[in-house]
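Pilot study result, target chain (347 residues):
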Amino acid sequence: MGVCEDFWPETIEFAWPDEGMPPDRDPTEYYDLDMVDLMEYWRDWRFCLEPFYKDYEEIHEDGVTHVYRDGWGATVRRFIKQGGPPEHIAFDMISSTVWKNKYRQTLLHLDKGRFKDINGMKLRYEKYKANGFYTMYNNTFVFENLRYSMGDVGMLQAMYDDQEWIKDFCQVFTDFTITHLEYLFSEVGVPDAYTIYDDMAYTKSSFCSPAMYRELITPYHKQLVQFLKSYNIGVILHCCGKFDGQLENVVEAGIDCIQPWEVKTGMNMFAMAKEFKGKITFMGNIDIRALETNCYENIDREILPKLQKIRAERIPYIFHTDHSISPVVKVKSYEHALKRFRENCSY
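Predicted structure:
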């Protein structure tokens, strides 16, 4: 089995150095994980997707949170030193007219300024390729950016009332993504895999029906997947929430691997493996809440039965939590989880 992990920025920057982890070490390298994300969001090395990415406007800051207007024209509130989704306050892109007159044009051409540190990315790419790591790029895609630009309510209303707007947004954004990836591949290098971040579900279900997803989202997932596979790049879909109703569409789009299979939403990786084993690789489904107890017995109860079942049923699997490593998880607890994995990772 493979192994990789995502870490909250504050875990690496603030919490774990106090527990003995060298502050200047990349956790992927430090723990000898297999898959390295070359565009970790905490390093700010993704290419920026927002139409007006230079035009952030700080509105209010109280030492704990700050309110600002981002490059989508959305007004949001975030914690300053804590991860998590933003609070939605207001959105500028409230109609197809606003989209066409103000935002659309900014996404129709290559903008090299969207890459914050192309030379740093290249050095990082060359280092990890030379050391035998499985390299990955990532970014958010159509569904996630519909949410960022219109808000959940505005997006869902438009998906029902103005589908031509949704289709135009998705096509423009798909072309935009491919254009910038082509530049990235030529300037930095071709990765082994690419992760599409599209949170299409919440704790109870997916945001829209499988039929609506198939009509409005699948065609653009397919276009990006086909482009990536023309470079022989594996495609991973990150989708939080309970998205099992969308699995047929995801597989149809050509996705190779899905993560994180959130346990707390009722995602049952083993039930899905009965139907989709051989069609996709599974990544995640290790309940982060067990690691957050920092109790080795709880961690063992979560990890060992799952690894044993994965081995017995020969499910293609990459070890990863069903979320990411928050500052609540102690260094020793994560190291214990890795130890248990490595004792039970051979089929």
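One observation from the pilot: Residues 163-187 form the longest helix (25 residues). A full batch analysis is planned for the follow-on phase.
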